[in-house]
Amino acid sequence: MTEKTIEKGPKLADPIEASYEVSTQEMIVRSHKLGIETIFDRAVNMKPCNIGIQGICCKNCAMGPCRLPLPKGGIEGEDTRKGLCGATANTIAARNFARMVAVGAAAHSDHGRCVAEVFMAAAKKETNAYRIKDTQKLIAIAPHLNVATTVEVDGVKQQRDIDEIALEVAEAALNEWGKSSGELLYLKRAPQPLQDIWNKEGVNPRNIDREIVEIMHRTHMGVDQDYKNLIKQCTRASLADGWGGSMLATDLQDVLFGTPTPLQSEANLGIMKKDHVNIIVHGHEPVLSEVIVAVAQSQEMLDYAKTKGAKGIQLGGICCTANEMLQRHGIPTAGNFLQQEMAIITGACDAMVVDIQCVMQNLANVAKCFHTHLITTHPIARMEQDNVIHIEFNEHYALEDATRIVKMAIDNFQNRGADVMIPQHKATQIAGFGVESIEYHLGGTFRGTYYTLNDNIINGRIRGIAGVVGCNNARSRHNEMHIKVIKELIKNDVIVLTTGCDGITAAIHGLLTPEAGQVYCGPGLAEICETVGIPPVLHLGSCVDNSRILLAATEVVKAGGLGKTIADLPAAGSAPEWMSEKAISIGQYFVTSGVYTVFGGTFPTSGAPVFHNYLSKELEKIYGGMWDLKTDPIEHAWAMINHIDKKRKELGIDKARERVLMDMADRQALEG
After folding, report:
1. Residues 388-414 pLDDT 10s
2. DSSP structural state of residue 337
């Protein structure tokens, strides 16, 4: 596409209106000068379907699509809208919502299956690219999968062989996807009152795959036509994701690749280097990127890069593959979802290696304008364009595959044109937090416990906890909702746990350093950040690592003083710029785990008021959590803060308390 045709054709995105972030604005300007269309331009020219966005268009059979727009002025009295088969707006919206949950759960859980298969190969020692790195984490998760870690010999308990434990864990984990009887084993990790609710409602997942398949069956034409019954199945599938596939993915990745610990790195497009080979890894599965990191950092590859005129190799990441490389190796993050095209538009990207999820097909069109090799690596995620190279990943030949990819990028360095523009914007970040490291930071090796966190919530230094997660959405100003919501929360002493693209966004805007506490936080949270040396926003990893937030919340419950289950906590969840079906599955498992969950933008049930009310009001009576929608960032944050304050009042901790310096006798009395 030439600059001339763009000027006479579609409208161009205004860089300032399109993005809240400076380097992205610079790349949008550059794309216009080069005549390259990006997602920001397409968002200006393609408007969303107003009926579809409300969830009231059914295309589940060939008699449709049946469109059920809301009457002008809204519904007054009985809602008489029906599709050809008689399906009501509630049924149609519930079916569409359920299918979003199914796809989202399938995406995360299929990721988990891939990790489990690689874990099995490592346990069987069928690959030289992977081994068990964190035996302590392996021993910690084994009992949750009913795998014994000790054996009794002559009346004395002894540690079992690690290889035996690993193999049994691999077998038990893989069985969770398709076992013929029983329930998911990891459900027992939730607080008991929450388990009791799931048991009472009959929503315990039987296995991961079955719940996803059953949604697809139920939403076929003429099957389930009761929105309440459909939501029960949504709950099963989403819990199979959050307390199943995603949680297993996180745990098995930790065992295979190492449990993350806090480390320092950088974020934004400015991490790319003009005199280095730049390899950008994008997607959501770390099984290949782990090996690419090892190969790219090898002396052999560094020496080879120098023979091609480069000073070294700069790895960077986009989306959750970025977060996986960041939290274990300190590899800098180049950008979030809406910055993927921008990384190529710099002209400095020698190879972009993609795996699964959130990869735009338009990357191929942008890559045609530059020397960039676009390399797909997964059998289920290929592109039709002829300039895309496919190197299919196989865990048994991972080193060979990674070496081929890195060499291809190095060889391409010499083909780079002179027109290179790397934005000079990047920020320092501290990332790699998790359930274990949060405990350590609060008490060290001597007194590692969540009680310290609970104590500071009870005494009011910390008002509450917020999980702010999720994607970017080109229908809103890039990054703005994320940052304004987070800043309003931490200004009011709410500590934030983040994952996914929200974590990358927070890093880019300087919120992932301890120093940010003094700049942006209220006095209580600022004091905690200074004393403990942590950022006010704790980056817990990729989007499957939302399971870390569930387990952190469970640890807060166990520590005592803040209720008996997750729904009792002064806590709330948020996805300010949500985009994918994964977000709906994540939201549903947080809601049905007892978390008040606020989304920004639009919500795919707004065209069916009765069903929408069921999600936003009635679910709270069952599970303790509910959905909400707030499009203004300050209102969004205050909806969360108000919920936190409500929970503080219910717990009786809403009054200011005198701060008492406790001696060892006081602490021992508490522990007793």
Report:
1. 999 998 889 999 999 999 999 999 999
2. G
The DSSP bridge pattern shows strands 596-599 and 494-498 to be: unpaired
What are the backbone angles phi and psi of residue 280, rounded to the nearest 5°?
Answer: -105, 125
- Cα 655 versus chain centre, distance: 35
Whether 22 maps to a domain, the answer reads: yes
* Mean pLDDT of the residues in the chain: 94
Question: pLDDT-based confidence at 2, cuts 50/70/90?
Answer: very low
- Would 440 be classed as within a structural domain? yes
Structure tokens at 567: 């729904």
Q: How far apart are CA 478 and CA 217, in angstroms?
A: 37
Among the listed residues 298, 277, 231, 286, the one whose alpha carbon sits nearest the alpha carbon of residue 258: 286
Residue 81, domain member (yes or no): no
- Is pLDDT of 78 > 90? no
Residues 571 and 658 in one domain: yes
Task: Give the C-alpha separation, 566 to 581, whole Å.
Answer: 24
If we measure between CA atoms, which residue out of 273, 338, 264, 267 comes closest to residue 510?
A: 267
Query: Which residue pairs from 609-618 have beta carbons closer than 8 angstroms and sit at least 24 positions apart in sequence?
Result: 609/74, 609/75, 609/79, 610/79, 610/89, 610/90, 610/227, 611/89, 611/90, 611/93, 611/94, 611/97, 611/227, 612/93, 614/227, 614/228, 614/231, 615/97, 615/231, 615/591
- Asked if 578 contacts 470 with a C-beta cutoff of 8 angstroms, the reply is yes
The DSSP letter of residue 184 is -
For residues 394 and 505, membership in a common domain is answered with no
Overall pTM > 0.90: yes
Residues 223 and 274 in one domain: no
Element (H, E) at 250: helix 246-257
Calpha distance 98→128 (Å, rounded): 41
3-state secondary structure 572-638: EEEECCCCCHHHHHHHHHHHCCCCEEEECCCCCCCCCHHHHHHHHHHHHHHHCCCEEECCCHHHHHH
Q: Identify whether 454 is part of a domain.
A: yes
What CA–CA distance (Å, rounded) separates 246 from 109? 6
Query: Domain range holding 106?
Result: 89-257
Q: What is the pLDDT of residues 186-226, one digit of tens each?
A: 999 999 999 999 999 999 999 999 999 999 999 999 999 99
| 76, two tokens | 């007054």
Task: Quote the CA–CA distance of 252 and 313 in Å, as a whole number.
Answer: 29
Residue at 314: amino acid letter: Q
